[in-house]
């Protein structure tokens, strides 16, 4: 990433990195706001998350445009080229995180506050807290070029999967106890699943970021994705 | 895509197109096999879908590798560069379709044949049939450079969304009727949701393919994604 004779390649790559940081910050606030809107049944703030997704999409398009223009103009050699392609991929995962936060926000109207009992609320909040830490950490580690930090994120993702499995079982119990809550609980199930998928996208970002920093691949396969799919 | 003085650029782009067609064929058979395994509770064939996903991942890596090497070696100008970047994106969506088919296959063991009554089985089968048509069509339209065909796929995706909403409601009814089926039905809910998401990925492929053929963007936003999220 350094040592180019044409310094503007690095300048442009730095600009792309700033866009990634902006997208990461937006992804983080969208996930935090979507979860809070859900747990407190606040439709107005849910609506803001839905609008934020338009901003997210625009940022991704801007990043893509800049990245492709950079490749076309500077014609970077293999290693730099891979860094730019990795940036395009990271942006795509961050955009998907925004989509998933939006999907949580869209479900707020289908879940009335009464459905979410205190223990369930704590479980979902704890899960969302883990996911937020992951998003914030992956961006920090990418920006500060911390390869070891990135490796640690994959282990942290397993905690999210475990938490998801426990929320999944909790929700099944609520549904069996009170069939009138089945509809609301299925929406909560999708919200929990969305948080778990956000964790997977963070892992993808970590893999691409690791590659940018080290030039090496993390193994392509993660230990598992969704424990509930096989139990 | 034609008229290059260096004919090997086109040769290499054709090779990438062949890889996309192969990935599309594999995606299609994975979705068909996963749905059949689910509806007939066949764990052995579900296991094959799970193995197929390893092949899918390998094909995506091969395509990525070739595409990046092609850019680095040939340094294509803007329009050709965008075609190669679009191919990378199309491959990423096809790989995601494979992941979602695998996720359906992983749920086969959690849903015993008795849970799926005939009307529900017909609904899921009909949904899967619509999704399969979309996958097969998007690949055909991409390979034959049929821009109008690609536009028509976005409308067809709305039929999948409508079908998903109806399967979603059907499943809620079954859960309310018989709480012992709640666990199996939530797995079926995720399977139906996966089919709906596969439809979204086909739409992404159509957008990227349209861009390759026409050099123009289809509008970024689709009419809607999941009707059940807002009802």
From TrEMBL, chains A, B:
Annotated keywords = Cytoplasm, Phosphate transport, Transport
* PANTHER family cross-referenced by the UniProt entry: PHOSPHATE-SPECIFIC TRANSPORT SYSTEM ACCESSORY PROTEIN PHOU
Q: Which domain of life is it from?
A: Bacteria
Location, primary (coarse class): cytoplasm
UniProt domain PhoU: residue ranges: 20-108, 124-208
- Subunit annotation: Homodimer.
Coiled coil (residue ranges)? none
Q: Where does this protein reside within or beyond the cell?
A: Cytoplasm
SUPFAM superfamilies referenced in this protein's UniProt entry, alphabetically: PhoU-like
GO biological process assignments:
intracellular phosphate ion homeostasis; negative regulation of phosphate metabolic process; phosphate ion transport
Briefly state the protein's biological role.
Plays a role in the regulation of phosphate uptake.
Q: Name the family.
A: Belongs to the PhoU family.
- Tell me the InterPro entries matching this sequence: PhoU, PhoU-like_sf, PhoU_dom
- Could you tell me which species this protein originates from? Limoniibacter endophyticus
Q: What is this protein called?
A: Phosphate-specific transport system accessory protein PhoU
């Amino acid at each position: 990433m350094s040592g180019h004779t044409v310094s503007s390649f690095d300048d442009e790559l730095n600009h792309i990195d700033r866009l990634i940081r902006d997208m990461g910050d937006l992804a983080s606030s969208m996930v935090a706001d979507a979860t809070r809107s859900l747990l407190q049944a606040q439709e107005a703030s849910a609506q803001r998350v839905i609008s934020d997704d338009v901003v997210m999409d625009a940022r991704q398009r801007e990043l893509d445009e800049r990245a492709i223009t950079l490749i076309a103009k500077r014609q970077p050699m293999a290693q730099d080229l891979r860094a730019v392609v990795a940036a395009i991929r990271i942006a795509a995962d961050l955009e998907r995180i925004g989509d998933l936060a939006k999907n949580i926000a869209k479900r707020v109207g289908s879940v009335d506050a009464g459905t979410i009992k205190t223990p369930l609320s704590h479980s979902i909040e704890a899960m969302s807290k883990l996911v937020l830490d992951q998003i914030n950490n992956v961006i920090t580690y990418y920006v500060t070029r911390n390869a070891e930090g990135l490796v640690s994120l994959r282990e942290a993702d397993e905690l999210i999967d475990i938490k998801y499995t426990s929320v999944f079982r909790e929700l099944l119990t609520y549904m069996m106890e009170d069939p009138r809550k089945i509809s609301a609980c299925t929406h909560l199930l999708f919200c929990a699943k969305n948080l778990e998928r956000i964790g997977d996208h963070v892992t993808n970002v970590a893999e691409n970021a690791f590659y940018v920093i080290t030039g090496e691949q993390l193994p392509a396969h993660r230990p598992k994705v969704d424990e509930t799919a096989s139990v």
